[in-house]
Design brief:
Blueprint: H1 2-61, H2 74-99, H3 105-127, H4 135-164
Length: about 170
């Protein structure tokens, strides 16, 4: 009986030590996962805010319908709206570049496509004039494509964040 108690106590101690080792590994893994989630969430939140700003301004550069101040010169209005879009676009590019290591390749690829569309709009606004044929249509097409890409980015971000949740 004494030997059985010693063996039982030895087994309890060994299993208790193993349990503590496993608990420590689990806590370290949960901590690392939480840090990854926090970093990725922050990066994606910042990037999404920039995508939303471009989405809000790209359609205003060459709008299909407009409420305007009749006293404002149309060229001044276009330039003001273009500056707002161009600034939002520059901030998006900077955020994507700054945060690239912290989110998935799929999100990066879709962001790259959205940036190409916005860059096409920016170049079009710098090179072409409102009196040129298809000026407005090109703006509508760029705006619609950017909005579509933004919706895909939003879906990818939601899916990624859902996959990072600890159950």
């Amino acid at each position: 009986k004494v030997w059985a108690n010693r063996i039982l106590e030895s087994d309890r101690r060994r299993y208790s030590e193993e349990l503590e080792r496993l608990r420590g590994q689990l806590e370290a893994a949960v901590h690392a996962h939480r840090m990854q989630f926090d970093i990725e969430f922050k990066a994606l939140s910042e990037i999404w805010a920039k995508v939303a700003a471009v989405r809000a301004t790209i359609g205003q550069v060459r709008p299909t319908g407009d409420v305007v101040d009749p006293a404002e010169d149309p060229a001044v209005r276009i330039e003001r709206r273009f500056r707002a879009f161009s600034q939002a676009f520059g901030e998006l590019v900077q955020a994507v570049d700054d945060q690239t290591p912290f989110y998935t390749e799929a999100i990066y690829q879709e962001l790259s496509q959205a940036i190409q569309v916005a860059r096409r709009e920016e170049i079009g606004m710098r090179v072409h004039r409102p009196e040129e044929p298809d000026w407005g249509e090109n703006g509508r097409r760029n705006s619609a494509e950017f909005v579509e890409r933004a919706e895909t980015i939003s879906r990818l971000i939601r899916e990624r964040l859902a996959s990072l949740r600890v159950a």
